[in-house]
Amino acid sequence: MEHNTAQYWIERTQDHFVSTFTFDLGRYLVAAGALTLILWLAKSWADARRIQRRRPTRKDYIREISSSFRTVFFFALTGMATVLMIETGIIDVREEPVGMAIFTLQIAAIALAHDTYFYWMHRALHTKRLFRATHLHHHKSRTPTSWAAYSFSAWEGIAESAFMPLYLLIAAFFGVAYSDFAIFFFLGWMILRNVIGHAGVEVHPAGWVDSKWLDWLTTTTHHDLHHSEGNHNFGLYFTWWDRWMGTEHPQYKERFRKVAKPIIITKRFAETMSVTLVAMLASLASLATLGSAVGALPL
Ligand SMILES: [Zn+2]
Ligand SMILES: [Zn+2]
Question: Distance between CA 242 and CA 76 in Å, rounded?
Answer without folding.
Answer: 30
